[in-house]
Amino acid sequence: MRNMIVASTSTIHGSGYLEYLLDDLVVVFKQENITELLFIPFARPGGVSHDDYTQKVHQALTRTQIKVTGLHKTENPAQAISSAQAIFTGGGNTFQLVKTLQQLELMEPLRKAIFNGTFYLGTSAGSNICGLNMRTTNDMPVVQPDSFKTTGVLGYNINPHYLDPIDGSTHMGETREQRIKEFHFYNTIPVIGLREGSYIRVQGDQEILCGPHTARVFLQNQKPYEVKNGYNFTQLI
Amino acid sequence: MRNMIVASTSTIHGSGYLEYLLDDLVVVFKQENITELLFIPFARPGGVSHDDYTQKVHQALTRTQIKVTGLHKTENPAQAISSAQAIFTGGGNTFQLVKTLQQLELMEPLRKAIFNGTFYLGTSAGSNICGLNMRTTNDMPVVQPDSFKTTGVLGYNINPHYLDPIDGSTHMGETREQRIKEFHFYNTIPVIGLREGSYIRVQGDQEILCGPHTARVFLQNQKPYEVKNGYNFTQLI
User: Fold this and answer.
1) C-beta of residue A126 within 8 angstroms of C-beta of residue A2
2) I need a surface site. Which of A8, A173, A194, B168 has the fewest CB within 10 A?
3) By three-state DSSP, how is residue B5 classified?
4) Cβ contact (<8 Å) for A186 and B9?
5) Contact across the interface for B179 and A140, Cβ inside 8 Å
6) How far is it, in rounded angstroms, from Cα A161 to Cα A9?
């Protein structure tokens, strides 16, 4: 039974790293008797080191007294994933994250662990890899993974940090909505535009929208529409 | 001897398709006795058909009396590229453009034609493929090309539609500058942030910044800086 928090972002404006998710995490850690968290630092935001990124997570979770271990420090990463009490994949660059997970052959162990019920937290790039592929990332392709395929623990793709078109903008580059429309020219997979502060709470077959914003649902050949807090995304597939 | 216009965008705000480039194009077409243009429509903005996209270019260039042929209509595309009087690659999705050029084995013929002196106009995705690779595109990876390698007719990469950070923004997704910084964590290639309305006029070994804006130069491990209209980018490499 899946047990996940799939979040648009790690950080909302004016708040500390993971701060807006902390109350929920404390509840989950207590419910599930989680005392250790395995952190996947491979997305390396801004090129930060795996150690520094892991330390940042450790500091953000001080209140929870959880022990945080970076996956890069484990001897057998696949084994570490399958035996973890809880897993968190942080944001950064999705191309870099996917490339590293593929090189280390960790996509399948991660998928199995999540379906086996290991609690999973994803933010941004860490949420992109919950979808069927990474083709709706906003990130720059700074490195080239062998495949764009991801874990597929959700039956749709996420577009994290979803942005509405800016009123009165003179910029001629594509809006996020236009890019997702392009995606649907080549792909049939539903896409959830998840605004910063929103997250999907997955428990078994429930995939519930949480947080202060509506989410935008994009289906191939249909007009995008908004769904409210409490919506169950399993209806989409 | 290369003869190119490498533009950030096809269209500036409040103006028609290619309109801001038309005076320059008229001069080039006259100087070079160009009466026919080969159009590469593969980037397919918004999934538009190759025919419709080619028609759009035809309409935009009515004043020049140039005959526009879509590359998709030619029997032997590689031959069409090598015998073209002039080539224009339009914008859209760079992943889609690169995937199609690679499948048809056209990247090398295009490179050769440009180095042989065939006039080349690129806008947005059509400018991305002038760099060494497509790793600084802003586009969504809606399809997967075999390789991110492009023509390398310029010794650096372009970031088209370059956007400055927005003052007072509460959005937590990466700025364009942060993404290019990530690129430089994995790549040594210089990157030119080319604002909408800017273009590089390449003639032989001159690569001159034109248009109303400064451009932003990003070099690995250096602070980004601005260069003015008239700057010659060949100094960078």
Assistant:
1) no
2) B168
3) strand
4) no
5) yes
6) 6
From the list B10, B139, B198, B213, the catalytic residue is: B139
Put simply, the answer to whether A46 touches B182 (Cβ < 8 Å) is yes
Distance from CA of A72 to the nearest CA of B (A): 18
* Cβ–Cβ under 8 Å, residues A200 and A208: yes
Q: Model ipTM?
A: 0.91
The burial class, CB within 10 Å (0-12 / 13-18 / 19+), for B23 is exposed
The predicted model scores a pTM of 0.94
Average pLDDT, whole number, for chain B? 96
| pLDDT value at B171 more than 90 | no
Longest dimension (CA), chain B: 53
Domains contained in chain A, CATH given: 3-236 (3.40.50.880)
pLDDT value of residue B170:
84
10 Å CB burial of residue A52 (0-12, 13-18, 19+) is exposed
- Kindly report the backbone phi and psi dihedral angles of residue B31, in degrees, each rounded to the nearest multiple of 5, phi listed first: -55, -40
Query: B174 and chain A: CB distance < 8 Å anywhere?
Result: yes
Give the Cα separation of B185 and B204 in Å (integer).
31
| Residue B86, helix vs strand vs coil | strand
Q: Give the per-residue pLDDT at B2.
A: 97
